[in-house]
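tool=predict chain=A
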Amino acid sequence: MIRRRAFSIPPVPLMLALAGLLPFFAGAFAIHGFAGDVARQASAKLVLILYAAVILSFLGGVRWGVEMTVRPGSPRPLPLSLSVIGALAGWALAWQGALGGLHPWQFLVLAGLFAAHWLWDLRASTDLPAWYDGLRTIASFGAILALLAGWAAGSPFQS
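tool=predict ok
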């Protein structure tokens, strides 16, 4: 449950989060824009997967940092372990894509990982600044929307 208001986000983090969404949407638009060019569309898909992997690594780093800050003497193994799942899964999907294994389901997996990080951040929001819920909601839904657009380009529902 979101307990805080999105409009209380400081301007710098908000602008940086919105700027961070630009590569997501550029990738999604490129995937659809290159629909007639298999090689370029594959490159656009891989770029979107790579960027998603980078951002999942960033989100994992945030969770790692929170755990280290809140419990500096004895960080819990489970949050530390969970914080690297997104980065490792993103790396595996990027590696698979780089080897020519691009599949629509990869975008669904990445979207699911972003949703999981968002839910984790909302549940752990007492350890984070009050404005973080709203920031993560905006950024997460933007990333998920772009990844679903990437999925739609190769899904069985595509016309």
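The chain has a mean pLDDT of 91. DSSP finds six helices and no strands in the chain.
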